[in-house]
Design goal:
Length: about 475
């Protein structure tokens, strides 16, 4: 029979052994995994985080990336900067809408597959409703050539957040990363502004640049004297903790099957359209699914392909351009434009089919890729590849700053809104939704139908050169 002193000695011995095990784990670079929060709580967090994005995400995919970084990395600390940029680079390297894939993958890493679907619906629903309504009525609520006062300040305010994001990402890069980002920025600007190189070539050049960037850093990391110091997976969450993989809830073999599903659907749908009698719904689905499976580089790249397919088969060129102007003035993904096209062609059912079909490939692919990312990011060689991918992808954001400035800041009033909104975000750390709303209010005050201040446009000849 154990006496009380003996029991105390045994308890002390067990406690000492436990402490020694903890010390040994710390020396070996491992940490005890903390218990995860309940799934219902994480789903609620996804809803609260993503529902405003569908209302305030003006300015295209790069502005959405800036908003997401503010929401997920800075404000809520859902993930570190490395994880965010890894998901962004993966979205850039897959066909489909980059910003939507980033939203889905970030929500999946928090609350699993259902969390990804919820975030996608929250992000795209407002624009889907407006564009479907306009497509059915064949008339816009907004004149593309004369936006109303309540929309005029939103684009430059959103664009200022892209500049803030680019600066924030750039500060994290080393010298090699900065050099790679500068190269990808220059090439991206060239593709989007050259008379000889067609814009649609970006769907091939963008993924090629990502592959080259990843291969370069992988090879460099294997050299005896690499050009930079490559980080190894850190202990804990980044190195040994499988919490993110468990949250995603998709085994690797299922991820592989998802890729097979995407390719099989593409093959079957293309064959069915050719073999079966004409069906408008199959026509819409095949066009949108095929385009969504082939597009790299985000929303702007998809426009010329859509125009080639739907004009004049589904609508006139003026109807196409009218819907394009409206979709660019709406928050959310530019791929929502597919709902307008489907509605013009075949009413509300056509809008729903077009909307589902164009988003489906990108979402299917990101669901297949994310579980591989969650596992492979624990390996040093994969971290080295992602270093090149991240640096190249950050260069794309730099190019977007130049391109979006030219497209969205057209008057002195727009520039005032840009500086005002950018200052609020960068120096006073005002949250992104409030920045966009306040920028919109200032734009409304300066509008020609209100105070009519700062309405002189940029880049218009004043006759100075002729006078010389």
């Amino acid at each position: 029979m154990t006496t009380l002193p003996e029991a105390k000695d045994k308890a002390n011995t067990i406690e000492e052994e436990f402490e020694s095990l903890e010390e040994r784990d710390e020396e070996n670079g491992t940490e005890k995994e903390e218990p995860d929060s309940p799934w219902s709580q994480r789903m609620k967090e996804v809803f609260v985080t993503f529902w405003p994005l569908g209302l305030i995400a003006f300015g295209g995919p790069q502005a959405t990336v800036a908003l997401l970084r503010d929401h997920l990395v800075v404000q809520r600390d859902w993930m570190d900067e490395d994880a965010f940029m890894e998901l962004f680079a993966i979205g850039q390297g897959l066909p489909g809408p980059t910003s939507t894939q980033l939203i889905v993958s970030a929500a999946m890493s928090r609350a699993g597959p259902l969390g990804g679907i919820l975030a996608f619906v929250m992000f795209s629903l407002p624009g889907l409703i407006v564009l479907t309504t306009c497509g059915v009525l064949i008339s816009s609520f907004v004149d593309p050539n004369d936006p109303p006062w309540y929309l005029i300040g939103l684009p430059p305010a959103a664009i200022s957040l892209v500049f803030k994001a680019f600066y924030g990402f750039g500060k994290k890069l080393d010298n090699l990363g900065i050099a790679m980002a500068c190269i990808s920025t220059g090439i991206s600007i060239l593709i989007n502004g050259d008379e000889i190189i067609p814009t649609r070539s970006s769907q091939y050049v963008f993924p090629s640049m990502l592959v080259v960037g990843g291969l370069f850093t992988f090879i460099d990391s294997r050299r005896a004297t690499p050009l930079t110091k490559y980080e190894k997976p850190k202990p804990g969450w980044d190195g040994t903790d499988d919490r993110t993989f468990k949250r995603i809830g998709i085994p690797l073999w299922v991820g592989g099957l998802i890729f097979v599903l995407w390719a099989s659907l593409l093959t079957i749908i293309v064959l069915l359209r050719r073999k079966l009698p004409y069906n408008p719904y199959l026509d819409i689905f095949e066009v949108m699914y095929r385009i969504g499976s082939l597009i790299f580089g985000g929303g702007q790249v998809v426009l010329p392909m859509l125009q080639d397919e739907v004009v004049p088969n589904w609508m006139t060129e003026s109807q196409f351009l009218q819907g394009l102007g409206l979709s660019q003035s709406m928050p959310g993904p530019l791929f929502n434009f597919s709902a307008y096209l489907g509605a013009v062609f075949y009413d509300v059912p056509g809008a729903i089919v077009g909307y589902i079909a164009i988003f489906a490939p990108g979402i299917i692919l990101i669901y297949g890729m994310v579980p591989f990312w969650a596992k492979m990011r624990h390996y040093a060689w994969f971290k080295a590849v992602l270093h090149g991918l991240n640096s190249t992808a950050i260069g794309f954001i730099g190019a977007a700053c130049i391109i979006l400035w030219e497209a969205g800041v057209k008057t002195r009033a727009d520039a005032i809104v840009f500086v005002f909104a950018g200052s609020l975000a960068a120096f006073w750390n005002i949250k992104a939704p409030i920045v966009v709303i306040l920028g919109g209010c200032l734009g409304g005050i300066l509008h020609k139908d209100a105070a009519s201040l700062g309405q002189v446009p940029f880049c218009v000849s004043s006759g100075f050169i002729e006078d010389l």
